[in-house]
Specification:
- The structure is a single chain.
- This protein is an all-alpha fold and about 220 residues long.
- α1 packs across α2, α1 crosses α6 and α4 packs across α5.
- The longest helix is centred in the middle third of the chain and has 31 residues.
- The protein starts with 8 loop residues before the first helix and ends with a helix.
- The N terminus is likely disordered.
């Protein structure tokens, strides 16, 4: 009887890279890492670190790297479950990873450019900082989730839908809370903020979805 053997070397390597990034961030920026880990229970992280806004720094670089890797792994798992005959090899996995990285970097740079053109740097800088913080946090959450789905539990559509629903719900709740914090600033620049959302938060993902489904 032939037995199908599943090889997970590329997933193991990527998970280890993500864990190394988290370990370095935890070691070098212990207080900030701990504050980020408590992001869902309080706003201490935003209150402290939003004062020194940067497009990206060493801490964000490490956490964003883990987010990109974790997201690529999770999307690959979803793709394999939704399309049972799909084969995820090393080349495809790396392509997905670098594709996500390129998409996020270009998007952040374009966001900064648009904010500068419309002279709404303050509101967009805070908005980008909060989105970036949530990305870093969810990247941390996805590490154990991916490990369980790869090495322990056989993923199914139901399990993936539940995980995705939980993550999206948490994200919507926290983003709503964060937006309330800056509602006065948003109201005074409502037109530009709506234009920004349509241009850089909705349109890119629609285009990306059309591109993926086309091919």
């Amino acid at each position: 009887m032939l037995r199908e053997v599943t090889y997970n070397e590329i997933f193991t390597i990527l998970i280890m890279v993500g864990l190394i990034c988290l370990a370095i961030a935890k070691t070098r920026f212990t207080n900030r890492f701990n504050d980020l880990a408590a992001l869902l229970t309080n706003s201490k992280y935003f209150n402290i670190y939003s004062r020194d806004l940067k497009v990206i720094d060493q801490f964000d670089t490490l956490l964003l790297t883990n987010f990109i890797i974790s997201t690529a792994i999770f999307l690959s798992i979803c793709y394999k479950v939704l399309f049972g005959d799909a084969h995820i090899d090393t080349r495809l996995m790396l392509t997905i990873t670098f594709g996500i990285a390129a998409f996020l970097i270009v998007k952040i740079l374009f966001e900064k450019l648009i904010a500068n053109l419309f002279n709404i740097d303050d509101i967009i800088d805070n908005y980008i900082f909060q989105k970036k913080s949530y990305k870093n946090y969810f990247g941390m959450l996805l590490v154990p989730v991916n490990a369980v789905l790869i090495y322990s539990v056989t993923p199914s559509k139901t399990i993936l839908y539940i995980i995705a629903s939980i993550l999206v719900t948490i994200l919507i709740i926290r983003l709503s809370t964060s937006l309330k914090r800056y509602q006065k600033l948003i109201k005074s620049n409502l037109f530009y903020f709506i234009l920004y959302l349509c241009t850089l938060e909705i349109a890119p993902y629609i285009i990306l979805y059309k591109f993926i489904t086309f091919y």
